[in-house]
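Holo model, glycine. Inputs:
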Amino acid sequence: MNEVAEWIQEAFEFITEKSKRNVKVIGSQFPHASMDKKYQLEPASWWTAGFWPGVLWNLYAQTQEDSFLKTARACEDKMAVLLSDVETLDHDIGFMWTLTSVADYKITGSKTARQTALLAANLLAARYNIAGNFIRAWNPWYEGDKNCGIAIIDCMMNLPLLYWASEETRDPRFKHIAVQHATMTEREFIRQDGSVFHMVNFDPETGDVIEKLGGQGFSNESSWARGGAWAIYGMALTYKFTRNTIFINAAKNTTKYFLDQLKDAPYPVWDFKVPDNTSNTRYDYPDSSAAAIAACGLLCLADIVEDVPSAQDYKFQAESILKRLYYTCGTRDDQEEQGLLRHGTGHFPEQKNLDVPLIYGDYFFVEGITRLMGQSISFW
Ligand code: GLY
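Output:
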């Protein structure tokens, strides 16, 4: 095995120590964004619920520290009851149960975790709209909200739950749905230059595309950085499970775009095409979470591309991003701050969680660092 660089070991120790402290104060609750150094909590049904237990499963796999397993399991138990109420759950079932029950099953072989994850996969598969070949994103946000034709780029990261279910049951139904959704995403969401739309609105009866939207990005023609990162990692994972070249080409195209925009910066602005700040509005908020997700996508690409120089280059770029994140955003100098990475932006259009630690930024940073430490189990 290659020797692990000193900065990676140091980053891993920082993550492990802070997470041990967080286990004592956060316990089996569901953190989202850190304000004034403390993670704000969400209900177990919020899309971010899997990331904190996901951090703990990654660390448990590396350390076998019992408190990580116990806390992750306690989160999983609280979430399991949600599976009997489909109206509280949306397509983020994938994020939520991949990083809890699938992770648990892959690490411990728990039969209960397997059953829970298979139930979650069935509910995700049931959101597939056969007319438009898309997985429906959300449930109505308010009385009368007609959003059953909406698909979003983030869903690429929900598909691994379906690939896992097909492998586990030796039944390709789940995979067929995932591949149809990914094929639609490659066609409708990814622009020629490698940037992406956040949302596509379909007519849910006919499956026709009605409009393509910027969603959490600045505008319909702009380029939401985290959406680009979801596309990189999601397309790389779909290639890993299908070996269909359209998906590796999509992963490479979105990666090139992201890296060309990022250059040597540790993290991007939350949207690659924001206007300059005006006296009334600040637009240039950072998003470290996008960089952490993209870095994990690059590590995945490094594992799956066949030509060795490209694989080495993806690995080099991933390490370089994670190192820049660690030194620029890592909260090593602040014991009180619960978040691991500063400078994430949650939702600029709603002016929520701007320039703060975000649990999904933390999660992908932990995934990246544990991968560099030699962790071989992928939860996705
Ligand atoms: N999946 C929502 C987000 O990335 O903010």
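The first strand starts at residue 31 and ends at 35. The chain has twelve helices and seven strands.
Archived with the compound record.
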